[in-house]
Structures are given as structure tokens and as C-alpha cells.
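Our collaborator T.R. sent over the components below with a one-line note: 'Predict the complex.' Nothing else. No constraints on interfaces, no templates requested, no preferences about which chain binds where. So this is a plain run: every listed entity goes in together, and whatever single assembly comes back becomes the starting point for the next discussion.
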Amino acid sequence: MGSILIFMGALLAIGMWWLARQGIMTKPWLEQGIAATYVPTRSNPPAVARTGLRVFLAVVGSLFALFISAYAIRMQMPDWRDVPLPNVLWLNTGMLVLSSIALHEAGKSARRGEEEVLKLGLLAAGATALAFLSGQILAWRQLTADGYLLTSNSANAFFYVLTGAHGLHVIGGLVALGRTIARTWRGVPPERLRVSVGLCATYWHFLLFVWLLLLSILTGWAGTFIDICRQALS
Amino acid sequence: MVDVPFGHVGTAPESDVGDVELYHPHSWVTKYVFSQDAKIIAIQYSITALAVGLIALILSWLMRLQLGFPGVFSFIDANAYYQLITMHGMMMVVYVLTALFLGGFGNYLIPLMIGARDMVFPYVNMLSFWTYLLAVLILVASFFAPGGPSGAGWTLYPPQAILSGTPGGQDWGIILMLVSLMVFIIGFTMGGLNYVVTVLQARARGMTLMRMPLTVWGIFTASFMALLAFPALFVGAVMMLFDRALGTSFFMPSIVEMGQVLERSGGSPLLFQHLFWFFGHPEVYIVALPAFGIVSDLISTHARRNIFGYRMMVWALLAIGALSFVVWAHHMYVSGMNPYFGFFFATTTLIIAIPTAIKVYNWILTLWRGDIHLNVPMLFALAFIVTFVNGGLTGLFLGNVVVDVPLSDTMFVVAHFHMVMGVAPILVIFGAIYHWYPKMTGRMLNDALGKLHFWVTFLGSYAIFFPMHYLGLMGVPRRYHEIGDMAFVPASAHTLNAFISVVALIVGAAQLIFVFNLVWSLRSGRPAGGNPWRATTLEWQTPETPPPHGNWGKQMPVVYRWAYDYSVPGAAEDFLPQNQPSAHPAPGTSHG
Amino acid sequence: MAVALILVLIAAGSVAFHLVSPWWWTPIASNWGYIDSTIIITFWITGAVFVAIVLFTAYCVYRFRHQPGRQAHYEPESKRLEMWLTIVTGVGVAAMLTPGLFVWGQFITVPEDATDIEILGQQWQWSFRLPGPDGQLGLTDTRLVSPDNPLGLSREDPKAQDDVIVEGGELRLPVGKPIKALLRSVDVIHNFYVPEMRAKMDLVPGQVSYIWFTPTRTGTFEILCAELCGVGHSHMRGTVVVQEQSDYQAWLQDQQARSFARLAPAAQ
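Returned assembly:
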């Protein structure tokens, strides 16, 4: 359960930092009127949406941290046989990186009000994300064809479940991205799309990060890295 | 820094309110069925959860009939019995308590208490309720599925949960259970995002975190914990569903089932337990923290005294929330996990008793030198203190690893968790309903019926669960369809079991008084006015009662003080509403 | 008034129930008297806290009940009081935890001279395996389970040849000898529980867990399954018979004659 505890520890640190800034040590009964520690809450929609996304990412992070914890426990059982990763995964990783970059650029152009660049960036992001998903399906088919079936070993099962869970989150992101693209085509000016594009970009970066983490675990690099750290410490 | 001139009567200047984009219902259906108003959603959540609660109550009656009078009711065979305990447990913990505290009270109270117009994502909030309802329907559908519902116990431990020796294991029962849980978690996540983000982003002007009522603190902390903890159950459910439906071996080692060697190998049953309890223990506090918060406000209001040690109460809530994520394996002391974990988890578990004890001290110190009005909500709050302290103290037995060895899996455990997370939170729920019903409907619940309901429920449930500990101490295991002949169990224990069953039937029946009171008072209750309890918090200061959609009319409230200015020396009244500017002499400074 | 009185009655009634009710733990038959002592310490501390809190609440309800003209005292917090209460609670918790951890340390440390035995659970009966003259248990594998090899013993392992197998019957143990029970299940999770021995542990398929105890008096005790294991859970009973050393040896001799015949390699 190491990975989930590290994740929870990080959240705890963020939470404590935030609470300290909110005047958690003050004596509220001594203050009347508009309190000195009052940090005005910006209840305008962009801030709300951003906070909403951040909290949601904490939930998704918890989900994947738990999957990884389960993986780490299960892989210690003697019947575990590592899955040879299909090469197409590296191409997929490249696609997801490109997708993230494209959305990042789209976000910049939305802030600058460049409509054409924005449209191009959004479309490129969508296309590369679709390419990523198709590549993942290709990887599944390749594994199945090579006899690495879901039921034959838990390492295989974890491969399908982890990539599947990640893929579903990409699909969810694509729905939001699709709606944003539709809005650009309906002629909504780039300035008003700034928030949606920014949210999509944050979500994409997060999913890229999760994917890199999963990849490092599936390849066994994470395990090697932890072993090296352990040796360095002892 | 926002600077609002004093002297306005507790509202922001109209220009500050800004352009409020509120969804406005156009028809009866959008107003009461597919409503996006948090208050309507709250009532929908509450009624659904209470209905599930009644079903689960009836299931517990049947269980008690079998335990008290074994063999008399032949239709409750072992199959049926295990299905009853499973559905009773799962329904009560997840579909009643979690849904009622967060979906019900969270939706109703958060926007009103922090001075918001509504939740920040009303559409998602509406989806949350309908997803929850879908989850309930899937769960209830398993009663009618071939093979009936799962009989694996609410903990759903594999491998037995998905094998043929367990009711529903190789039928539809376990599949419907897992799918229903996953749907519930998705629905809850939609709601939970709302509760958390609303508190973070939609507080009224002047409402600092430390001015929030403890109810909001409790629900906020619990929602955040639930958002992080439910994924553990989700992960476990996904993996078990794969094991059951697709033949993987996440949790399935080599198994011989009815003489046949199954095609599984290497899986770890303990992995599921770790995932389950990583959700399951925070879940206890997900139920308890809102109850802590609500009971603090009930005691403070009805004792006309500020909650004692408000800051400590907030810190304790947060400490309990954080600690509850590192105690999960105290449910697994005798599970065959690495025994050295016992040292760590016993220590963290007993440490969590300290912030919890501080909360109890502060509740009773709030009563000290108060002006105690024994209204029905206050009675329930007092009963909560007794049952919670009782159940919390027996938790110290079970948390202390070696003491848990003889007691775990016995009736002692059953008595403990029913006292601490069954009876105690439900008493708070009743108290809260008696307290806020006037705001929801504009009418008071009948006082005499309330007191009758209170005494039967409180004394009855204490009489059920207090003696039950001693059956467990003697060694009677839990989850036994019939105790049968055990050499060490004297005949008097069977008499005690029969007594417990009879009391359980009476307490269950007494809930009809409550249901009747709810319905009858809707039309015939005494008109309540806007603030019948003379309370300080914002929900009692709405311009209309019950508050309409948008809560506050044209002007948003501005908060000038904390939530507990009761009996301030020199003030004209014994309470100062949070949105009241300092028109009165300043309160005395702190004494400590 | 009535409320305060009822609260007092609850506190008094709970204590009275604890003292006079006939329901109490079974007379101990193993070396785990320390567990009972830890429970007693916990009862004293928690009982005192419970009575104190309920009585204090009752006193407040009586003394500070609403009367015309009463005004509550305004005092937001008292750091000193809260600090003292925290310290006292911490001390109380430590007083329960310290002996608990100490005894747990003993509970998981098996003495050198303990005899290994195996307890195997399956839906819904208990089986037992005792080492033969070589004093060691042989290897097993769940995949080897078959009608003529119900415990899945490895026939290649010479240590398994002399193991004594008791299927669905009584477990016999010599009095006064420490026993290390290796716990194994071939299907679902069970739990080996003998109330008089105080010890209890899950039998988990796919792994071997253990407990140890020393029977301290002769007699016949009931084995219960304490982990839900399917519809037959409440019927999964067994017996453990604790005997004098000499009686036990006589019985063991008799069993060994039978076991040899049963698991000889020729049986393949």
C-alpha cells in the first residue's frame, strides 16, 4: 500500500499548507465584522471550475494510486510472469506527449485570441489522443494474439485493467475536448474558451503523467528505481 | 481585502451580488423531479435513504427472529440468513448512512449554512441523485434475481463471495452487488465534488473557514475523505468483478471447490481485504464526522452556549480525518497478514482515540454552565453522547491488537459497531431531522410524539446492544445462522438472545411513530416561523421559510461573526446571528 | 430531572450488569492469561471513563437545566483545561496500549520448542495433520488435493510419509506442551477459534498463517469457525481434546500405524 500512502501524504501536505493560509489557528470569537483573515472566495465560474477539476484529479489520482498499490502487492506472488510490452506502446506514448503539447499551445493561443491556431491545436490534440487510444487497442490485440490472455496470468490482467482504466479517462477527456471544439466551430471567440481549453490542458497533462507512471511500472523501471534507492539508503 | 461598510443589516450591497446565473425551473417536473435545487435534491436523497433504511430495518427484524427463536421461522434458512445480514449491512452503511449524511444533510445544509445560493455544479448534483437511485435499484433488484442477493457478508471477502458455497456467489447476487457499488461510487463522486468545491468556493462574504459551523466542517471533511476512500472500494469491486465474470486471479489462489481444483492460481485474498478496509475504515469516520459536526451544533444551540473549544473541535476533526487513513488494518489483526503490522496499527488506532476523546470532552463541557433546553433534538444529542462514548470505548478493546484476538468475529464486534456507527449516528440523524424539519417545511414536528419516539429508540437500542457485548465476550461468534449447541454457552444466553430480539422488534416498530410524525406534521404541525430554536447560523436567517430556490432572495448575506455567539454578555438576546453586524455591545474576550 | 435520573440509571445499570450478569468469558485453558489481564485493565479504564462522562452529563443536565432568568456562561475555550484532558487521555491510552503491545509481542513469537501441527479448513469441516516420528510436517500443494489425498500432501517428500492425518475428527493435543499451529485452507477463508484457548487466526487459501499456544488443562473444547465461509459456516465445528502426555502418546502410536499404510508411495 506504499503508493497510496505516498499519495495521501502529498495531499495531506497540500491540505495543511492551504489550511495554514486560511487562518486555521485564529480565534474566531475575537474577530467581528469582516475578518482580517478573510480571503475572498472567488465564486466566479472559472475559479470554481478550476477548483472542481483539481479536486476531481485528486480522486482520479487516488484511484490510480490504489491500482498501483494493488499491482505492487499482487506482483510479489510467485505465479507472476511479466508481460513483454508491445513496441507500439512507445509510439502511443509519443502520441500522448504530442497531444499534451498541442493542448498546451492551444491554451496559449486562446489567451492571445488567435482563433486559427486554437482550432488547429485542439484538432491536433484530439487526433493524437485518438491515435493513442487506437494504439492501445492495437497493443491489446497484439498481446492477445501472442497468447497473453486476460486470464492466463495476473500480470496480463493488470496490463489490461490499468491501460483500460487509463483509456476510459482519456475517452472522458475527449468528450470534454469534443464539446470545446464544437464551440470553436460555432464561432465562440477564443477569449471565452480560455477556461475550457485550460481545463482540458490540465487534465491532459495529468493523464500524461499518470500514463508515464503506469509505463514505468509496467516496464519494471519503477521497481528497479525503488531497489536502487533502497540500496542507497541501507 | 474586501471592505464592507458596517451597519448594513447583514447583507451585501446589491451591486456586489453580481449577475447570479441561476437555473430556473419551468415546470413541475423540473421543479420537483429533475430538480437542480440542492434543497430538493437533499429531500430526494433523504427520502430514498430513509426508504432503504426501512427495508434494511425489516431485514434486521428477520435476522433477529432467527437468532432469538431459532428454528421457529423455517423460511429463514442459512441461505436466507446470510443474504439478510449482507444486504442489511451494505444497505445501512453505504446506501443509508453515507447517502443520508452527505447526500441529504450535505445538500440541504452546506449552501444554506455558508450563505451560498446553491451548490456550484447544480446539474452534476442532480445527476448524482439519479445515479444514486439507479444504484439502489440495482441493489434491490438482486432480491428478485435468480439465486437471490449475495450472502457474502457486507465485507464481501473473496474467495467465498464468488464461489458456489455462498448464496449469490455463482449467481447474479454478487455481480449486482458489485455493479451497484460501482454506480454508487460514481454517483457519490459527482455529489462529493459539489460538497467540497461549494465549501471551498461559494462561501458568503465574511465566512472564513473558522467561522463555519461545525456541521459544515464535519460534512466537508467527510466528503473529502469519501472522495479519496471510495476509489479503494471501486478498485476492489472492479477486480472482483473481473475474477467473478472473466476468470482472472486477482484475489483467487489455487482453490479446491467441492472436490474440483479450479483454474485459478496465485491470487491474494488479503489484497482485497487491504483495499476493502482502506475504504472501510475511513467510511466509519465518513459517517461519524458529519454526526460529530451536527451534534456539536445541536448541543450548542439547545444549551444556549458557544461550543466549547471550537478551534480544538476543528483540529480534532481534521486530525481524525487524516489519521483514519492509516488505521485500516486493525480490521485484519487475525486475518493472517504479517503479524508485525499489528504493532503499527494498534498504535495508530489508539492514538485516534485522543482527538475523539477531546471532542467528547468539549461536548460535555459545552453543557457545563449552559442553559439547557431539553428539546427533542437535545435529547437525541445527549443520547448520542452516551451511545457514542460506550461504542467508542469498546473500540479501544478491539483496536488494541492482542485484546482483539479473542473478541474479533464475535458478537462483541457486532455490538461495538452497532453502538458506535449504527445507533449513535442514527440518533444524530433523528435529532437533526427534529432540528431542521421546521426549516424544511415551516412546521414543527410534534413534541410529544418526538419524546415517545426518543425514549423507546434510545433505551431500546441500548438494551439491545449493551448486553450483546457479553455474548461476544463469552465467545459466541458473529454471522452464525444458529448458535445451536455450544458447550460453553449456557441456556441463559439463549434467553438473552430472545430478549434482544423482542426489544429489536419494539424499537423497529417505534420508528413508525417517527414516520407518522413526519407525515402528520407536514400539514398539522405547529407553524415554526423562521428561527424557532433562536439559532445563530445562517440557515435560520433566510428571508423566507422554507427557503425558496436561490435561498436568499435579492441580497446575499454577509457574515460578521462566528457561528457560536450564544449568551454573549451584554447582548440584548441570548444569540447573535452570524449576519448581524455589531449593533450590540462587543462580547467579552476569551477567558483562557 | 427525569432525563438526568435516567442517565444516572444507565451508568449504574451498566456497571451492575457487568458485575452480576452470568455472561462472562469461558474458563481459560491455555497460556494466554495475559490477554485476559489486558482485557481487565481495559475494562477498568474504559468503565471509569464511561461512568464519569455519563454522570457528568447527568449532573450538567440537572444543574444547568433551563430556568427563568438563567444565562449560559460565555467562555469560548480554556487551553489549560483542554491540554490537561489531552494529557490524561494520552496516559490512559498508553496504559492500555503498552501491555497490549507487550503481550502481542509474545503472541507472535513462537517458542523454540513448540511442536508444529497443521490445521486445515475446507467447506465445512476441520482436518488436522500431526508430524510422525520425524517430528516434521511434509510439503503440501492445494493442486494435489484429490479424494484419496484430501490434504494435498506431496508424495515425493519423505517427511510427508509419516504424517498423521485426522480428517473431520478431533484434534488431540498433549497438555503443557507449546503448539505451533500452521493454518491452511484449500477453498475459502476460515478462522480457527477455540474460546477457551483465547487464540484465533484466519486460515487463508494460498498462504500459511500460524498461531501458538500451550494447553494448560485437560478437557474437551469446541472448535468454531469464526470467519464467514459460506452457508455451512455455523455448522463448521470440531473438537480439541487436551490429554495427559501418556494418553496422547498412546493415541498417536495407534494413529501412525494407519497413516503409513495410507500415504505410502506405493499408493500412487
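Summary for T.R.: Residues 137 and 180 of chain B are 8 Å apart (CA to CA).
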